[in-house]
Write a structure and sequence with these properties.
The protein contains three helices and three strands, in the order αβββαα. The N and C termini lie far apart (36 Å). The longest helix is centred in the C-terminal third of the chain and has 11 residues. The chain has one domain. The protein is α+β, with helices and mostly antiparallel strands. Strands 1-2-3 form a three-stranded antiparallel beta sheet, with no helix packed on it.
Length: 68
């Protein structure tokens, strides 16, 4: 079962992330780290993006409007 990940502790080594379905068919996210490890997160990729934006105090709605 994927566990909850503390994004504020791993953002420096984050290389990427992508969605996948767990064994029960639920939406989860795999997080790729620069040292080659993969972590599983029990949330959707949209939640990861929101969490990272919160760490950097970025307004995603404004960014989408400006660059979309």
């Amino acid at each position: 079962m994927p566990k909850k990940v503390d994004l504020s502790g791993i953002w420096r080594s984050l290389a990427g992330f992508y969605p996948y379905y767990d064994e029960n068919g639920g939406n989860c996210t795999r997080i790729l780290l620069d040292d080659g490890r993969e972590l599983s997160y029990v949330r959707k990729t949209k939640s990861i993006l929101r969490g990272l934006a919160e760490i950097f105090a970025v307004d995603l709605v404004s960014l989408r409007r400006r660059y979309g």
